[in-house]
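[09:14] KT: can someone run the structure on this one? pasting the chain below
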Amino acid sequence: MDSSLSQQDGLNGLGNPFQDLDQNGKVMAYYMWIDGSGAHLRGKTRTLAQKPKCISELPEWNFDGSSTGQSTGENSDVLIQPVAMYRDPFRRGDNILVMCETLCPDGSPHPTNKRHSCADKMKRVAREHPWFGIEQEYTMFDANGVHPYCWPTNGYPGPQGPYYCGVGANRVNGRKIVEAHYKACLYAGITIAGSNAEVMPSQWEYQVGPCEGISMGDELWVSRWILCRVAEEFNVVISLDPKPIAGDWNGAGCHTNISTQAMRQPGGLAVIEDAVEKFSKRHKEHIEAYDPRGGEDNKRRLTGAHETASIDEFTSGVAHRGASIRIPRHVAIDGCGYFEDRRPSSNADPYTVTDRCVQTMLLEEFTKIAPPSGDREEADIQSISIEELDIDPELAAMLAKGMGGKSMW
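[09:31] RB: done, structure tokens below
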């Protein structure tokens, strides 16, 4: 066996002989949270006296935020509040994985906590039943995190073409990791919908969904953790970089499929087209929300080549994989269904992505008072969109607060 692998894995690839030990009725709960980068997960384990029946039974905890880019050493404690739990496919038994929100010492959402805002918006649009399905692309690297997994030591594999959905040792790499991740997600309770080899060798995709509301972000983040944890067992590093290899190679995205109840019903295509029109007027805001660096990561990917649209221009079309937004062919034929936003990067925060989507699609509308006419003493209340008045959303929120707390939305 490779000595470098032996140094990393003291068991030399064998199973951990201590994993089947009895836990004396105790439960191991792995708490995970998003760190200060907005792109990576951290986590640690605590013991519970018994298996929790619901998320509210899980205790709040804390961590050293000065070590995760989320606080200073002088005031380092950051609180973590459990928000979702899943079966642990690694420790198994009654052991669990716990997704958490980060909170400040006073209990308010931490500045790096994007879930809180997303959850609030999802509650406000709950009657619309927004569904999401996200296609998570990723690339496998050797344990050093520098060299793509199973690529030639000196040089490159053959040009793209035979690898997408391919089969055979000369066309796909890492299928054991993919299969293990798929089953681990099913075991955990993740709504994983499928997987496939991607256009670039050692690049894969899996899909999670449909998930309603805030559960989309919860499930995708936990599925990412499971993927990285599975890859540990194979001494492989998972990269979510949206353009991991420069040159004539495909990047990696997080294509987001979106629908509301109205879109899924007969005649829903008109609702989809209306949403796409709204998205076209908020292209800049979506680009800023679609990677953790405000669009900087996506600049390397959204070039107009390799099945992407240009980052500088919004486009849409039926069955068009080079557009910002694609309406699937069968949706256009059926007259209802969903649409796909192809702009989010592979390292995008699904909380921020889905938050921005419902904001644009369902919440950017408020009321104005029209000037009175004739002898009318009261003005008409008319519903208009922000686009019509060209008012910044933050200003609209300020106006709402100025009305005695009554929402203008």
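[09:33] KT: thanks! The chain has eleven helices and 15 strands.
[09:34] RB: yep, looked fine to me
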